[in-house]
Specification:
Blueprint: E1 2-5, H1 8-16, E2 21-34, E3 37-53, H2 62-67, E4 71-77, E5 80-90, E6 95-103, H3 112-126, E7 131-137, H4 141-149, E8 153-158, E9 168-174
Parallel strand pairs: 6-7
Antiparallel strand pairs: 1-4, 2-3, 4-5, 5-6, 7-9, 8-9
Amino acid sequence: MIIKSAELADLNQCMLIDPSYITEYVWQMYLERGERGTTITFRTVKLPRPMPVNYPRDTDYLLENWQRGECFLVADEGGVIRGYLDMMVQAWHQTGWINNLVVAKEYRRQGIGTALMKAALRWAEERNLRTIMLETQTKNYPAICFYQKHGFIFCGFNDHYYATQDIALFFAHKLP
């Protein structure tokens, strides 16, 4: 398997990858208002049964993301795209924003996401970015664990970020 910059021909395969997932845990938000202020806490909660979840983004934006000419990487094995990661740069504060990190279901937990993430971090370091940011759903516990394993730290949330009104969790990774 090789990690490479995506070519236009790779995008069709990227669009065919099913990004949905199944989770047994969620980060549940607790809000407490009191005289001394507001406290917001996220706790990991086990669900009564595994829950299938749809990916919150539309793949129609992949072409637009690729056309920016920034970081759009694919994991290619023999011409088969097994996963992709795309990141845009906000140069004014030297930050990369990962828009998508998707691995085809049949190839998950085989190191493809890690290979894509490491390549993206190298790409960002080569361009002297200071931080990588990303966001994910509170329901995407597998991604939360993956991001934390790779050095991303929870840094905020937006309680109505997605069209579904799901809560978005924001994570940051400081680069050396």
